[in-house]
Description:
The structure holds 2 protein chains of 2 kinds.
Chain A: E1 8-9, H1 17-24, E2 31-33, E3 39-40, E4 55-56, E5 63-72, H2 78-81, E6 86-93, E7 96-104, E8 126-134, E9 137-144, H3 145-148
Antiparallel strand pairs in A: 2-3, 2-4, 5-6, 5-8, 6-7, 8-9
Chain B: E1 9-16, H1 27-42, E2 51-55, H2 62-69, E3 76-80, H3 87-99, E4 105-113, E5 128-129, H4 144-159, H5 163-177, H6 192-197, E6 200-203, E7 205-206, E8 215-224, H7 225-228, E9 236-244, H8 264-274, E10 285-287, H9 295-302, H10 311-314, H11 334-337, H12 344-355, E11 367-371, E12 378-385
Parallel strand pairs in B: 2-3, 2-4, 10-11
Antiparallel strand pairs in B: 1-8, 1-9, 4-8, 6-7, 9-12, 11-12
Helix pairs in contact in B: 1-2, 8-9
Amino acid sequence: MTESGFLLPDLQDPESAPFWEATARGELCLQRCSGCGRLRMPPRPMCPHCRSTANEWPAVSGRGRIWSFAVVHPPLLPAYAEFAPYPVVVVELDEDPGLRLVGNLVATPEGPINGVDPATIHIGTPVRVVFARVGDVSLPRWMSAAAAD
Amino acid sequence: MAQLIQDRAAIVGIGQTAFGKGLPESELSLACQAISAAIDDAGLRPADVDGLAMFSMENGREVEIARNVGLGEITYFGEVGYGGGAGCGAVGHAAMAVVTGQCEVAVAWRARKRADKGSRPWANVAARLGGAPQWSRPFGLLRPVDEIALLARRYMHEYGATRDHLANVALAFRKHANRNPAATMYEKPLTRAQYMNARWISEPLCLFDNCLETDGALAVVITRASRARDLAQPPVLIHSFAQGFGRQHQVMTNYFCDDPLLGPGWACAKRLWANSEIGPRDISCAQLYDAFSPLVPLSLEAYGFCDRGEGGSFTDDGALEWPHGRLPTNTAGGGMSEAYVHGFNLVLEGVRQMRGTSTAQVERASSCLVTSGEGVPTSALVLRRD
């Protein structure tokens, strides 16, 4: 638990540090195998396709579609309960629908995680990444592409 | 050629404590009581036990169990990981150990004080998240129910499953619990209207899509079938056993593989039926892991009772209900209405069905499928009457 009460990533985790360094710059970067060129998520030391341990972290488009969503109600940790009920989405990225990220849907880049009416959320809706500062971490969040563009 | 377990091991004793909330005993004490009862049920003595198979999440360790219950010299002990996925796995490991001569009599068990708020793993949060949790928890996906809700929503979207299907699951198990005096929900009927009006926990899942929070312990005793026939109870044969998880599986937050709706049960089922002389059509009743209701239609598909996407509609027309359904399921009430002891109560109900002593006894039941946690690396058993 951090000062904000939100659960935040360990920025020292060697497997994921480049991801969080990129979000801090306002970029969505994913791990890509230097051996076979495939993007992978979550990051890990070895490519399951070619077993290369070499990798790089290119920026991706930050565009995708809602693959699924849940609307989370209490009981919850206090920092999250304050916003409940709030939606959580899984986004599949345009680069490869098999690449997915869990995140929050927001109405504005710095808006609260409960700022989008769950009744308006639909699987398949195009979304675009935005970034919000929470504590010392920049978390990727998602806005409806129609609203963001 | 491989020597399969196929009926060469048997469950010969079962024991359990009362189920409740805030039971005064420690988990170790509960474990010892359940194991002791199971040994008595089998007509064996503690000194006869020389094998132990347990959940790696168990708090009471093997040496403590042995010192308390007064077990003999132990020559096999092993653990199975991944929480609710471990139940049939522990029984299966015990079966492998007795069949291969690593021990004569093995015990498998689970003891848990889940109803204590402090025992919920998701509430015990570290300062900073490494590994898999960092990709979901910061966004408020905090509890197992939230993780399964995302899969449930996608499942409903892709295949047209509905809340009525999930209610079919909850209501069937509740009806069975209403016949089982040991069940937490013995005296509490549930109506479809109550289900539909219940508070949300993680949409699309409501309160009654969730399992109970239970304190309690259960144990089984396993030995070779040849020895089992001389003991106190009719032996329940372990016909087939398997464990499994699929390619690129991630525990609970399994959103990062090609097809997240193909859960671990698919890999497990392939091995389970390959090592079995019977198939899903021959199964008299099922005990399916039900921490959350959508795991039931997903498991019906994984274990071959229907095609992909048909798990929801399979539950229509009382299919899961005793006595007339085509697959009476969780006939003691399951995790949702009997007790949630990481699914180990499902194993004991499978044994009772094969003994003919269930409170929702399926007539002429000759075989039972028991599964463990879908959503985590899992395991399953096919049990048979001798």
